[in-house]
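WARN no homologs supplied; continuing
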Amino acid sequence: MSPEDKRILRELKTKGRAEDNFVEFTEFGDAIVWEAGFVRDEAVRQAINYLNENGYVIEFNAGLGLTKKGKEADLT
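OK structure emitted
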């Protein structure tokens, strides 16, 4: 798991609310930096795709939600 993957999962675990630990994209701070309406860094875009495709997160229009697998992920 890349440093970007771990940073996004940490933000979800820390800031998440409700059952799915949903966090709006604008609330990720330095973990997901936006520029002109898009994720600025390619590595972060790849991290979001990796986490979504591998079942760690659920991507919504406004943000990300943490799955059971994401909640159990080892971030050390």
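Residues 3-15 form the longest helix (13 residues).
OK
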